[in-house]
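User: Before I run my own analysis I want an independent prediction to cross-check against. Here's the chain; please return only the structure tokens and, at the end, one sentence I can use as a sanity check.
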Amino acid sequence: MYDLARWQSRHWTKGTRIYAATLHQNLFGDWQVQRQWGSKGRRGLAPGRSLTLPASSYAEAVALLQATATRRERRGYKEEGHA
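Assistant: Structure tokens:
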């Protein structure tokens, strides 16, 4: 069963670069974090510029999302708020 209330999405920018990470469940209900990146000048994010990280639990997925946020901020990206 899906738990939509626990899904999260975060976005960062740096110059013309954009980075997004989404914590959600796949078709089987397993938790995962999908990361996407690209350039602001394109429509959306470029195809092929994504990575999906599986997680064994919701807590692990939250930790993966937080690790992604920490890395983006260390690299000078600014977060555009939580969704």
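Sanity check: The beta strands are 8-14, 17-25, 31-39, 50-54, 78-82.
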